[in-house]
From TrEMBL:
<dbReference type="InterPro" id="IPR011990">
    <property type="entry name" value="TPR-like_helical_dom_sf"/>
</dbReference>
<protein>
    <submittedName>
        <fullName>Uncharacterized protein</fullName>
    </submittedName>
</protein>
Amino acid sequence: MIFILSLPINNFVAFLKGNNDSYQLYEVVNYDSSCNLTVANNDNKKFLAYGLKQQGKLEEALSLYEDLYYHGNRDIAVVNNLANIYFLYDETIRAESLYHFA
């Protein structure tokens, strides 16, 4: 029983020490850190794309959002953020089609 309860605590300790990908993603989003990250799953990829978009690194964010979208990840956050970036680049037809999809 004690071992089962310690699993989340161990993950949290690793997070606080900055020893895992989640902490590096947290830094990117909250501290404008320039870590070079490789993301292993779609959830982390969405989080990283959002962080890059917040930092104004639209080309990198666009690349990640397009990769997610064209590989079948059509959740509302991906579609909406992709449409927002297209709108900023004056690609209104693409943006509007995604807004209607969302």
